[in-house]
Amino acid sequence: MLSRLTRSQALAVCAAPTVALLATAVFAPLPFSVAQPGLTADVLGENKGTQVITISGAETRETTGQLRMTTIEATSPDTRVDLPDVIDSWFGTDQAVMPRDAVYPSGGDVKEIERYNEKQMKQSQDEATRAALGYLDLDGKGIEVELKLADVGGPSAGLLFSLGIVDKLNGDGSGGDLTGGRIIAGTGTIDADGTVGAVGGVPLKTQAARRDGATVFLVPEAECAQARTELPEGLRLIPVTTLEGTVDALVSLQKGTGKIPRC
């Protein structure tokens, strides 16, 4: 036997599951991480009391200026992120909501992710060394490069490692520094052949760079549009695709000659 519901009764019946779903959405954990600008480190100098780049088997040069690699800090993979956290981050300029899989592509537990990031960093350091020595035609010359950067994982410091090696061994090629005495920051992976690759979290990295005094930011060309969003005042973007092109751009910037790429 069926009975007819009044309009108000029907609305009440329909509203009940909707309210329940909304309440569930508000309090349910979501597959996101909340990220913010992280530390930066000068690869030409020391980090936490340890020289970042140590070279043996070749004469190195004293450098001026800084080449700062940049990072983001994100909530750990086991941190609960709810809808209110996501909403707060959307309205903030110093935070970003990112899919957890984009921040932690390896998945797994915290220890597994740490091991993955350490492996990525080691591979990045090897590729950066090969790229720099290849660019300088110093492959197989018995030069040993040791790279140390505590508490940082992943491959996104590759470009800055390569630039640091080039600056310590060769500078701008004519006695000057690649930096021109500036604080230059950037991000980007690098392959052994010198190809620069895209990374994540660029808008947050530009904020970290400017916070720590950088006036120039090297960004993978494919991420120019991202880098321009919320770009801090006083920070110049230079898009890059290769190690050779990056060195050329820095030399042009330092000497005030030639065309410098722009986003």
UniProtKB/TrEMBL annotation:
Residues 1-28 form the signal peptide. Keywords: Signal. SUPFAM superfamilies: Ribosomal protein S5 domain 2-like. Residues 154-243 form the Lon proteolytic domain. This is Lon proteolytic domain-containing protein.
